[in-house]
Design goal:
- Strands 5, 6, 7 and 8 form a four-stranded antiparallel β-sheet that branches. Strands 1-3 form a two-stranded antiparallel ribbon. Strands 2-4 form a two-stranded antiparallel sheet.
- It is 54% helix and 17% strand.
- Helix 1 packs antiparallel against helix 2 and helix 4 packs antiparallel against helix 6.
- It starts with a helix and ends in a 25-residue tail after the last helix.
- Among the domains are: 99 residues, no CATH class; 118 residues, 2-Layer Sandwich (Tetrahydropterin Synthase, Chain A), CATH 3.30.479.30.
- Strand 6 and strand 7 form a beta hairpin.
- It has 337 residues and is an alpha+beta fold.
Length: 337
């Protein structure tokens, strides 16, 4: 509680006491009872009430989040050119009055919900997009009075700056911005850009009128029922298309997997055949080399073939049958001792 309030309370007590004392004096006078002492008390209370009321009318305490505009009967312009800053100040009693303005953050909300906005009922902003779709926008404007322009605000707007400035200006700016975008852009790709555009224009407009915009909040966008149904149908169609695309991709992957499997089998067969062919080539080369070596040996040792033939005969064979009419293929052993 500040001093100005204490003085005001003291003045109220003094006036109340004066009324009580005067009432007692009148009652005693009606009963022909001497009002001894009441006259002096009444005078003292009257003086105290007048002094405290006068002093209280001149004392003004400004809170840190406030500024005061002094309306003065003695100022040439009808007001002091300097605002009252936080703390205790004194103005000329009964000749000057003070209008208090808050410079702290204030929020003005326009919403489709009656419990959220400053105006009861549906206070959303109805706007139409560039392609003719009607939408409803919920928004909040967070702002404060510029401490250096409090007097200007008082002169132009007084305490009507919310209803006469913030509300109509913001609604008009929002409608102008929405009209530049299609409905699909408003709900997706261009929503942030649209909100930024609204904020920039609104900041400049409020600044020209002594207010500082802290932020613009695009709370919600509501569409007509018909458009909502069309969006839902479109989303269903898109989901079905995505599902069909997924099925196609799955089939493609299965086909590719089968192709790769077949390719692998074919490659394996080729590798196997190649290996077998190379093995045959190696084997044939080895046989040819062996035969060539044998031929070279036989040229130098003609009887070696006969020796190999005899060696390969079963060791148990004692008799050799030779067909009649055939010559001997081996020379008969000599019978000479």
């Amino acid at each position: 509680m500040n001093i100005a309030n204490l003085v005001g309370i003291l003045a109220s007590i003094a006036w109340f006491g004066l009324i009580v004392v005067v009432g007692l004096a009148v009652t005693r006078a009606a009963r022909n009872v001497p009002a001894k002492g009441l006259t002096g008390a009444a005078i003292a209370l009257l003086v105290l009430a007048l002094v405290s009321s006068t002093v209280g009318a001149g004392l003004v305490f400004i809170q840190p989040e406030e500024r005061g505009v002094v309306i003065s009967a003695f100022a040439p312009l009808g007001y002091r050119e300097e605002v009252l800053t936080p703390g205790l100040s004194f103005v000329i009693p009964y000749a000057e009055s003070v209008t208090i303005y808050k410079i702290s953050k204030q929020t003005y909300t326009m919403s489709i919900s009656s419990a959220e906005g400053q105006v009861a009922g549906d206070d959303s902003i109805s706007a139409r997009t560039s392609d003719g779709q009607e939408i409803a926008i919920d928004a909040s404007i967070i702002f404060n009075v510029d401490p250096t322009k409090v007097i200007d605000v008082h002169i132009v707007w007084q305490d009507r700056y919310e209803q006469d400035l913030v509300r109509p200006k913001s609604r008009g700016i929002i409608r102008d911005a929405v009209a530049q975008f299609r409905v699909d852009e408003v709900i997706s790709t261009e929503r942030a850009n649209m909100a930024k555009q609204i904020e920039d224009v609104l900041r400049l407009t409020l600044s020209d009128n002594g207010l500082i915009l802290d932020s613009f909040v695009l709370r919600n966008i509501t569409f007509s029922q018909e458009y909502g149904v069309s969006v839902e149908q479109k989303q269903i169609a898109e989901q079905q298309a995505l599902q069909a695309k997924f099925v196609v991709e799955s089939k493609k992957q299965e086909a590719e997997q089968a192709r790769q499997t077949a390719q692998g089998v074919a490659d394996a067969a080729v590798i196997s055949a190649t290996g077998q062919a190379e093995a045959r080539v190696i084997e044939a080369t080895a046989e040819a080399t062996a035969l060539r070596l044998i031929a070279d040996v036989l040229r130098g040792n003609p009887t070696l073939l006969q020796y190999q033939y005899i060696t390969n005969l079963a060791p148990t064979v004692q008799t050799i049958f030779i067909p009649s009419g055939n010559q001997f293929i081996l020379p008969l052993p000599s019978t000479n001792p």
